[in-house]
Design brief:
- 53% of the residues lie in helices and 9% in strands.
- Strand 3 and strand 4 form a beta hairpin.
- Helix 1 packs antiparallel against helix 2 and helix 4 crosses helix 5.
- 29% of the residues are buried.
- A 3-stranded antiparallel β-sheet has the order 5-6-7. It has a two-stranded antiparallel sheet with strand order 1-2. A two-stranded antiparallel ribbon has the order 3-4.
- The longest helix is centred in the C-terminal third of the chain and has 21 residues.
- The chain has 2 domains: 91 residues, no CATH class; 179 residues, Lysozyme.
- The radius of gyration is 25 Å and the shape is globular.
- With 360 residues, the protein is mainly alpha-helical.
């Protein structure tokens, strides 16, 4: 079996769990029985997928062409990039959102970071944290509330150096009172404690955020006792940052100043030079921002992409919820992989028949 066909089969079958290592093993062992059975099963699965293709679904090529126009990229090059990275979307829980993010990676792959960005952290460091258990939990909340994890992690690097446990409780290790709590450094004064009066509790409205996974508004009471919990602290921080982004109309530097200083403090600082909070907060966060673009879900059917090099914005339409397998069918049709194998007389059924005859 030629190497190019092994790679071709590997690309087609990766979503179904047949790895290139298995195929190479099959080549070296002259199509052992495991490969024949597995290939037949996967071939049958592919045919079933193709036969049940829903006519009302937009094809991948058409959808990518639309996104390419919105992102101002070449659609053919975009499709080629997707074909090279299709396996990364295998476990996506929302394929079309992750497809937009993948195309953003393509668009900005050769873009240098603006001056002052990424000087205190690296993309490798970001990926290492993202792959931790805490990083993955935070990623799920980012998807839930439409937040870009690059921005959230950069903010948390400044606030707590991504160390939640160091800032929980009432006092730190040196006996100093913790005015701000947790990985997102929630200010204790914004929350009520167990001794609060009904009036004080009523004055501190719950923090809210739109949950794109449930299509509902989530609400968290501003109870000080909740701050030590990692997941609640993260959700509170994302809701606060999203609120700042909405107030600032997604002006990133303004939103960060609002997060650090409050709306009034941010306006006084930016308009009158009156310092409250950290005067270098924006630049501190930017030093930990490791990509030249940010993506936010800003509506149920829209992702906003911000180019951090020039401030340009791109609005990308999210196609309704569709599974990886359904779009993967379109990928198979687009690449003509099955037709290539047929023209080379390398279809799985033919190979299985040859092996069957050889066994006899």
């Amino acid at each position: 079996m030629k190497r190019k066909h092994l790679r071709l089969l590997s690309a087609i079958l990766c979503g179904a769990g047949v790895t290139s290592a298995t195929l190479v093993h099959a080549e070296e062992n002259n199509y052992d029985s495991y490969f024949v059975d597995s290939a037949l099963e996967q071939g049958q699965l592919l045919q079933e997928m193709l036969s049940t293709l829903k006519a009302n679904y937009m094809t991948l090529e058409t959808y990518v062409s639309m996104l390419s126009g919105q992102l101002e990229i070449d659609p053919e090059e975009a499709m080629h990039y997707i074909s090279e990275h299709i396996s990364t979307l295998k476990d996506s829980d929302h394929f079309t959102k992750d497809l937009i993010i993948l195309l953003c990676q393509y668009k900005f792959q050769d873009t240098e970071l603006p001056q002052g960005m990424g000087t205190n952290w690296s993309l490798e460091g970001y990926q290492n944290y993202l792959n931790t258990e805490e990083g993955q939990r935070q990623l799920q909340y980012c998807k839930m509330y439409g937040m870009d994890p690059h921005l959230l992690f950069a903010l948390e690097k400044v606030e707590s150096n991504l160390d939640h446990e160091r800032y929980v409780g009432t006092y730190d290790d040196y006996g100093n009172y913790l005015y701000a709590v947790g990985i997102t450094q929630q200010e204790r004064s914004n929350f009520y404690n167990e001794n609060a009066t009904e009036e004080e509790i009523a004055s501190k409205k719950p923090r809210t955020g739109y949950n794109y996974q449930t299509s509902q508004i989530d609400s968290i009471p501003l109870n000080e006792d909740l701050l030590d919990d990692f997941d609640t602290n993260v959700r509170l921080g994302i809701m606060e940052l999203n609120n700042a982004l909405n107030i600032s109309d997604y002006d990133i530097s303004y939103a960060l100043d609002i997060y650090n200083k409050g709306k009034v403090g941010a306006d006084r600082f930016r308009n009158d030079g009156i310092v409250s909070g950290n005067p270098n907060y924006v630049s501190d966060v930017y030093e930990n921002l490791v990509v030249p673009y940010l993506t936010f879900q800003t509506d149920s059917d829209k992702i906003t992409v911000i180019d951090m090099t020039n401030g340009n914005r791109y609005q990308c339409i999210i196609y309704p919820e569709i599974s990886f397998d359904e779009f993967y069918e379109q990928y198979i049709l687009f690449t003509n992989s099955l037709q290539q194998m047929e023209s080379d007389e390398m279809t799985m059924s033919v190979q299985a028949g040859k092996v069957y005859q050889k066994r006899r």
